[in-house]
Design goal:
about 450 residues, Rossmann fold, 3 domains, 16 strands, alpha/beta, 20 helices, Helicase, Ruva Protein, domain 3, five-stranded parallel β-sheet
Length: about 450
């Protein structure tokens, strides 16, 4: 249950080596409707913070069997702790109180507690402070999420379906599978889901499974114990622990080894992880978003992807259309990327001429939105005029013109043939400046056939 929900019960961690003090706070907290957990030492407190859900408030004694509570307070603050901490001591001094407040303690009390009501008020105020801080952070994140959502640009029916699925997926806790070719914006979709979800105040951690060797991917995800392997000099938390309460985005999940998939399945089914080199289970609260550019159904049938994991993660599926299937979005995207790069570079905004748009519309865009974005950035970096024509685009696109056209064996012959001809004649037109006569010469196809072909492919001038 998230902290923002109506039925949420705030949790308070009491760290004190005196049994009487622990029982006292447990009674006070439960009476006021809070949940209480206790620890007798710094080690037990640290272990709890590593292995369990973070508390909403910590009540911390100064004199503990294995160290000074103020040192722990300093350490937690240096680690970016945002949980309010109330410091208590039986050996109160002005210097300790000053140090505690300077270090970031919410309040300071001396034993014995002569005014229980004052302690209750302090606990209530600390928890209210935490709630308001969380709400403020969530508000800032929601405002930021709107800009994230604007990065997913498109008015095409395909993108409108994607936007609707993002909104619906953000309201659930189900795992999500995002499918799309490279460069279609899968990570942007995951970021938008995170920003619109109840987990937006917690971490969003993206991991590319294809970029890490199998052993490194496993230790990065699950963490490891000291001595688990050569070079493991200390216990290290993995990304599944770091993302606790938030979202872990596993891009290119189809490239993960079967052994890693088996461990991910356990997280999906039971919410339990085991660090490398450990037999102790750790429960984690993390939502997983998966993405792939592969056909996982085919990967399953060919034994490269676990069938049980596939069915577990394929609950909410978001299909991102390739750019060639949403051509009406290309002018909008091109102008957006061009304007943004000009603004980032501190130069006057460049303008695409009318003859530039046909060039953009007839390209195959094998690299999808990423390829279009890179082209616009290249133009801003190399172009010297404020007007960008179709000829300019052709000149700065020469690198793409010589790329090998992918051979689409998975589609019907007629569709594959048309895709090839569209890519072939589009690039040939670009290379010869749009002259059909030169296209006929270069392709060794009769000129009348070239004209008919260009017309049927929608590449002829009106």
């Amino acid at each position: 249950m998230s902290p923002g929900s109506r039925d949420y019960v705030p949790k308070v961690l009491v760290v004190d080596d005196e049994a009487f003090a622990r029982r006292y706070f447990e009674t006070v907290l439960v009476e006021d409707g809070y949940s209480c957990v206790t620890a007798e030492s710094i080690e037990a407190c640290t272990r709890h913070l590593e292995d369990e859900e973070p508390p909403d408030l910590i009540i911390l004694d100064v004199r503990l069997p294995d160290g000074n509570g103020l040192d722990l307070l300093t350490q937690l603050q240096q680690q970016g702790n945002t949980t309010p901490i109330i410091v208590i001591t039986a050996y109160g001094s002005v210097s300790e109180a000053v140090r505690a407040m300077k270090t970031g303690a919410f309040d300071f009390f001396t034993k014995p507690f002569e005014d229980p009501h004052r302690i209750k008020i302090s606990i209530k105020n600390a928890l209210e402070h935490r709630r308001l801080s969380d709400e403020n952070l969530k508000l800032r994140t929601e405002l930021h999420s709107r800009s994230l959502f604007r990065n997913l640009i498109g008015t095409s029916p395909g993108m409108q379906r994607v936007f609707e699925l993002i909104r619906k997926a953000a309201r659930t806790e189900s795992h999500i599978l995002i499918v799309g070719e490279s460069g279609t914006g899968k990570e942007l979709v995951a970021e938008a889901i995170h920003a619109l979800s109840d987990r937006s105040a917690a971490a969003f951690i993206p991991i590319n499974c294809a970029a890490l060797p199998d052993t490194l991917l496993e230790s990065s995800l699950f963490g490891y114990e000291r001595g688990a392997f050569t070079g493991a000099t200390k216990r290290t938390r993995g990304f599944l622990e770091e993302a606790k309460g938030g979202i872990l985005f596993l891009d290119e999940i189809g490239d993960a080894a079967l052994s890693v998939q088996a461990k991910i399945l356990r997280v999906v089914e039971d919410g339990v992880i085991y660090r490398v080199g450990s037999t102790k289970s750790i429960r984690t609260d993390v939502r997983l978003i998966f993405a792939t550019n592969k056909d996982l159904g085919r990967e399953v049938s060919e034994g490269r992807f676990r069938k049980d994991l596939y069915f577990r993660i394929n609950v909410i599926k978001i299909d991102l259309p390739p750019l060639r299937e949403r051509r009406e979005d290309i002018p909008l995207l091109a102008r957006h990327f061009l304007a943004k790069k000009c603004a980032d570079s501190g130069i006057k905004e460049a303008v695409l001429t009318d003859d530039a748009l046909p060039f953009l519309l007839k390209r195959r865009w094998a690299g999808n939105v990423r390829e279009l974005k890179n082209l616009m950035e290249r133009i801003v970096a190399l172009h010297t005029r404020e007007v960008v024509t179709g000829a300019d685009l052709a000149r700065y696109s020469q690198e793409e013109l010589i790329e090998t056209v992918p051979f689409p064996m998975e589609v019907e012959y007629e569709k594959a043939k048309r895709e090839f001809e569209l890519a072939y004649f589009s690039r040939l037109l670009d290379a010869v400046g749009g002259d059909p006569v030169r296209v006929a010469e270069r392709s060794r196809v009769h000129l009348s056939t070239v004209y008919r072909k260009l017309k049927s492919l929608g590449l002829s001038k009106k």
